[in-house]
TrEMBL record:
Gene that encodes it: EXOC5
Coiled coil (residue ranges): 51-89
Segments forming domain Exocyst complex component Sec10 N-terminal: 40-148
UniProtKB keywords: Coiled coil, Exocytosis, Transport
Pfam families attached to this UniProt entry: Sec10_HB (PF07393), Sec10_N (PF20667)
Sequence ranges assigned to domain Exocyst complex component Sec10-like alpha-helical bundle in this UniProt record: 232-695
Similarity comment text for this entry: Belongs to the SEC10 family.
Cellular component GO terms, alphabetical: exocyst
Record's protein name: Exocyst complex component 5
Source species of the chain: Pan paniscus (Pygmy chimpanzee)
Keyword hit for Coiled coil: yes
GO BP terms in the entry: exocytosis; Golgi to plasma membrane transport
Length: 696
């Protein structure tokens, strides 16, 4: 056991090293070559004994551990019990602390209350003492003998000044016969004013300067000098009055800027406010047009007067001072200005349109929206077919430049009033509302309605002697668009240029113009179809088969056919009408389309006949006349088409031996052989073997 304890005390404990040390300490446990021979039995016996010792040691240690655990558990219970007792003691102490805190608060409240009571008693006492002293000093002034040290001691001049200031304030509160004294002073001041004695006026003003009646005196002064003013044109007179007062006030009063500011305040709050109310209230509910005109005029003249008054010295922040005066007069009228403006503009615009349609004895048709109408519109745009019966407009475009000018003039005035009367933060939004009204009545109710009516009035392409008035609609619509765009740029853009409403207005303008351009394009396209239809009717009625295959080849006296003459006359008339109805690139675009369709019509028309030699010459003359007509278009492509057609017609008369040479010429070399062949086949002598052989 002794060895075991020693062996266990070595740190750190390693089992292999523990056994090694045990073997070396056991007799007979060494190696076979040592001084003692190796004795396994003895070593085994030592191991068995040592194991028994370890078991005994283990049991002893285990009992000790159990004893310590029991002791630890006992101490833990005692410690927990002690902690609980401490917690209870802490709770009791905390409760006592709260009670003490409440008691302290109660005592403090009592102390504060007592202090307030003491102060309430002491303050009147101090005031009474102070009042007594002031009464004493006041008596000395009344007696004319200053005996107190504070007045006789030069070192207490500050205290004396403070006392005199207080006595001065008290003196102002003393009762006296104000009316009598005030009337006397006013009479004196009036007399001095009539005599022009500025110095005496200044003396009287100085006497009243430190008394409350000074306010009434200043008011009287305004009445005195303003009696001859503010009678005719109140705004002009107010400016003159302020200029006159500005010259005198510095000579009469010691605080001229205050007196002048008081004068201006009186003018605004008394004279101007009553004048504005009188001018606006009588027409506010009965006549919106006159109300808006008066409001704009009065506000403009008031702000102009304010600008003139800025040149006078009115104190530090005269801009704010004048702005507040203007706001006090007009705020009740400006709050709902835009509602009155938009309401009037809608009713006025509707009346202008209705008066126009009544003058035409026309009842507006319902264009309709959504559903079937949208489907018809999409079909019409894609197929260019007239949907529904054609309406005879009797040449009326239902567009009036006078109406447009009136609508734009009303809107222009609305924009001007909006610019002047709207708060800067509300200006873009208010301007946009006015713009939407213009779009509604000018663009939709007038222009778009006229376009729809014009489209409905376009006859079908196979109608005979159709009157085409849609180009008149196009002409007037273009003029109106220019006026609309000018007002947008001149009057709306400056009001919204620096706000998010700019993009909204531009987008709305773009949408409405694109919508109208689409209808214009549709109408122009259908009108061109009608023109071509009219030409077809002329050709069908006037062109005879014998024109190009006369019975007597030697007795042809005409230079070109009657059909050609009438078609060219009709085309020239339509070209002139297109040029008068449009401007810029639009003219070239429409004439290009008409020219191409005109060429196709003549090309297909010539394909219907057979040509003798003399008939071919006549066809060449007709095409030459058509080419002269095409020159009026002033479109190079159209002229080129008719040049080529004229060259093709030469194939009708050229000698058979020269066919190949003509076909390889400059104008025909690039054409498809089938086209050349189709013209050669129109010759009356085509079937002869000789001609077919030469062409092949």
């Amino acid at each position: 056991a002794h060895f075991s304890v020693e062996l266990f005390q070595l740190e750190p404990f390693v089992a292999d090293e523990y056994i090694e040390r045990l073997v070396w300490r056991t007799p007979g446990g060494g190696s076979r070559g040592g001084p003692e021979a190796f004795d396994p039995k003895r070593l085994l016996e030592e191991f068995v004994n040592h194991i028994q010792e370890l078991q005994i040691m283990d049991e002893r240690i285990q009992r000790k551990v159990e004893k310590l655990e029991q002791q630890c558990q006992k101490e833990a219970k005692e410690f927990a019990k002690k902690v609980q007792e401490l917690q209870k003691s802490n709770q009791v102490a905390f409760q006592h602390f709260q009670e003490l805190d409440e008691h302290i608060s109660y005592v403090a409240t009592k102390v504060c209350h007592l202090g307030d009571q003491l102060e309430g008693v002491n303050t009147p006492r101090q005031r009474a003492v102070e009042a007594q002293k002031l009464m004493k000093y006041f008596n000395e002034f009344l007696d004319g003998e200053l005996k107190s040290d504070v007045f006789t001691n030069s070192e207490k001049i500050k205290e004396a000044a403070d006392i005199i200031q207080k006595l001065h304030l008290i003196a102002q509160e003393l009762p006296f016969d104000r009316q009598v004294h005030f009337s006397r002073l006013i009479q004196e001041f009036t007399s001095a004013q009539r005599r022009g004695e500025i110095s005496r006026m200044r003396e009287v003003a100085a006497v009243l300067l430190h008394f409350k009646v000074n306010i009434h005196f200043v008011g009287y002064y305004f009445m005195l000098i303003g009696g001859a003013y503010l009678r005719n044109d109140i705004f002009e007179d107010a400016g003159i009055l302020c200029q006159r007062v500005n010259k005198q006030v510095g000579d009469i009063f010691s605080n001229p800027e205050t007196v002048l500011a008081k004068l201006i305040q009186n003018v605004f709050e008394i004279k101007l406010q009553s004048f504005v109310k009188e001018q606006l209230e009588e027409c506010r509910k009965s006549d919106a047009e006159q109300y808006l005109k008066n409001l704009y005029d009065l506000y403009t003249r008031t702000t102009n007067l304010s600008s003139k008054l800025m040149e006078f010295n009115l104190g530090t922040d005269k801009q704010t001072f004048l702005s507040k005066l203007i706001k006090s007069i007009f705020i009740s009228y400006l709050e709902n200005y835009i509602e009155v403006e938009t309401g009037y503009l809608k009713s006025r615009s509707a009346m202008i349109l209705q008066r126009y349609y009544d003058s035409k004895n026309h009842q507006k048709r319902s264009i309709g929206t959504g559903g079937i109408q949208d489907l018809k519109e999409r079909i019409r745009q894609r197929t260019n077919l007239p949907l529904g019966p054609s309406i005879d407009t009797h040449g009326e475009t239902f567009l009036s430049q006078e109406v447009v000018v009136n609508l734009l003039q009303e809107t222009k005035q609305a924009f001007e009033r909006c610019h002047r009367l709207s708060d800067p933060s509300d200006l873009p939004r208010n301007a946009f509302r006015i713009f939407t009204i213009l779009v509604e009545f000018l663009c939709i109710e007038h222009i778009d309605y006229a376009l729809e009516t014009g489209l409905a009035g376009i006859p079908s392409s196979d109608s005979r002697n159709a009157n085409l008035y849609f180009l008149d609609v196009v002409q007037q619509a273009n003029t109106i668009f220019h006026l609309f765009d000018k007002q947008f740029n001149d009057h709306l853009m400056p009001l919204i240029s620096s706000s998010p409403k700019l993009s909204e207005c531009l987008q709305k303008k773009k949408e409405i113009i694109e919508q109208m351009e689409m209808k214009l394009d549709t109408g122009i396209d259908r009108t061109l179809n009608c023109m071509i239809g009219q030409m077809k009717h002329i050709l069908a009625a006037e062109q005879k088969k014998t024109d190009f295959k006369p019975e007597d080849e030697n007795n042809v006296l005409i230079q070109y056919t009657n059909a050609c003459v009438k078609v060219c006359a009709y085309v020239r008339k339509q070209v002139e009408k297109i040029k008068n109805s449009m401007d810029g690139k639009n003219v070239d675009t429409v004439l290009m389309e008409l020219g191409v369709r005109f060429h196709r019509l003549i090309y297909e028309h010539l394909q219907q006949y057979s040509y003798s030699c003399m008939g071919g010459m006549l066809a060449i003359c007709d095409v030459a006349e058509y080419r002269k007509c095409a020159k009026d278009f002033k479109i190079p492509m159209v002229l080129h088409l008719f040049d080529t057609l004229h060259a093709l017609c030469n194939l009708l008369v050229v000698a058979p031996d020269n066919l190949k040479q003509v076909c390889s010429g400059e104008q025909l070399a690039n054409l498809d052989k089938n086209i050349l062949h189709s013209f050669v086949q129109l010759r009356a002598d085509y079937r002869s073997a000789r001609l077919a052989r030469h062409f092949s």
